[in-house]
Design goal:
About 45% of the residues lie in helices and about 20% in strands. By secondary structure, it is α+β, with helices and mostly antiparallel strands.
Length: about 450
């Protein structure tokens, strides 16, 4: 009978010591050679007639490797069930003894979810900072809306770019001799802020004449591929246009938003901004409560869970870059850097998930199958053409369990909000938004 002993290495690691009896090892080796004899083609011998010593000489290393691998794989799964372990990482296998005719001994070290018990999570004190929507915020939002509906009129009376023009350009950007950006027929506003931008560098550029300029990007630039680098641009202005912004009148309000007048448009914009402010304030409260919960509990988390969370965050960052996503040749390097930079944040995310699951368990929160199906229906409805793929995804038991956990965590946060000591604080105005089109 296989022997299994478990040792706690630390709060999140367990080591299984496994010993498979010599008899079981020998039986498996005999079985392997019997199967090999039937199928092996050995020069000088008819099929199935090759002597065992010949097979051992020709295939012995491979047979032993296959047998020991099979025994480890099967016994490891049995050992997990025997010890009631649910690992969250790939096992680290160390073979301690593997010889024919002898017991097979190995150890398997895995990470497991820690036992987490959230405490003192009700009545947490946080501020709800709600920004005041001022008249200036409403006007700024409407002006932004007007600018987005501006039309472009070709400039034919001159061939030199001036501040305020919209230029159509072709360009190529290089950093450290590598191409980091390239585009054709791109629109760029000439002049404006910041002063060290392509648009500012193109003041005075002439139609059809290549212009070369350098930009040194700051260390904290949003595009990590360009952060801290000197980038050389070769740009050619292909066309110049002026931006014609529509007048703010009742006709504009009606055509673009359905409002009957400018005054009604202002009322709608204010309502939209106030709704946005309220959502932001509530989201901030939820975030602050989770941060307080995490900060009040110190415990180890499995590195495998941190790595998986960091990988998901890296993917989110890259997807958010859109057309600014790094070239394929540079992406592995960018991924490695992001994975490193996001470790601490990923660790907090994992801690938060474990603590919220603990809150849900202690408060007996549940998500039944009907609620789960309803949420899947909403996800599918919002997925458009991919709705059936979404439905298919959540037919998988693992995917449904993951979704259930996320919904339980959201309910745990709802509970924290309901029972929190929230103080309302007005914050300075400064919102910007999009007027509705209802």
């Amino acid at each position: 009978m296989t022997k299994v002993a478990m040792e706690a290495v630390d709060a999140v690691r367990r080591r299984l010591a496994v010993e498979i009896p010599a008899g079981a090892v020998t039986a498996e080796i005999e079985r392997a050679y019997e199967q090999l004899r039937r199928r092996a083609r050995v020069p000088g011998f008819r099929p199935g007639r090759a002597p065992r010593p010949v097979l051992e000489r020709m295939f012995g290393d491979q047979v032993r490797a296959d047998v020991f691998g099979k025994l480890v794989q099967e016994s490891y799964a049995d050992a997990l069930r025997d010890q009631n372990l649910e690992p969250v990482s790939v096992p680290e296998i160390v073979t301690e003894r593997a010889e024919p005719g002898e017991p097979l001994r190995y150890s398997a070290t895995v990470e497991v979810r820690p036992d987490v018990a959230a405490r003192d999570y009700l009545g947490l004190a946080v501020e709800r900072r709600r920004r005041v929507v001022a008249d200036a915020d409403v006007e700024a939002a409407i002006e932004s809306f007007r600018q987005r509906h501006a039309s472009l009129t070709p400039i034919t009376e001159r061939d030199t770019a001036q501040p305020g023009d919209v230029a159509t350009i072709d360009y190529e950007a290089r950093a450290d001799a590598a191409v980091v950006g390239k585009g054709e027929q791109r629109l760029v506003e000439i002049g404006g802020e910041p002063a060290d931008s392509p648009g500012a560098k193109l003041i005075g550029a002439r139609l059809g004449v290549a212009t070369r300029f350098d930009i040194v990007y700051p260390e904290d630039h949003a595009n990590r591929e360009l952060a801290g680098k000197a980038v050389s641009f070769d740009a050619t202005v292909r066309a110049l246009s002026r931006r014609d912004v529509p007048a703010l009148d009742d006709a504009f309000a009606s055509e673009h938003t359905g409002a009957q007048s400018v005054e009604e448009l202002r009322q709608r914009v204010r309502a939209d901004l106030e709704a946005t402010v309220a959502r932001e304030a509530e989201s901030a409260v939820r975030g602050a409560l989770v941060a307080k919960l995490v900060g009040a509990h110190e415990f180890d988390v499995p590195q495998a869970m941190v790595e998986r969370r960091a990988e998901a965050m890296v993917e989110d960052v890259l997807e958010s870059l859109g057309p600014r996503r790094p070239a394929a040749s540079r992406e592995p390097e960018v991924r490695r850097q992001l994975q490193h930079d996001l470790q601490a944040q990923a660790r907090d995310h994992v801690k938060a998930a474990l603590l919220l699951e603990s809150v849900a368990a202690q408060e007996h929160l549940t998500v039944d199958e009907a609620e789960l199906d309803a949420h899947v229906d909403r996800l599918a409805a919002s997925a458009g053409k991919a709705r059936e793929r979404v439905r298919g995804l959540y037919q998988d038991a693992g995917a449904r369990a993951g979704l259930r956990n996320r919904l339980l965590q959201e309910r745990a946060i709802d509970l924290l909000v309901q029972r929190a000591a929230v103080t309302d604080v007005d914050a300075p105005s400064g919102v910007a938004g999009v007027p509705g089109n209802g």
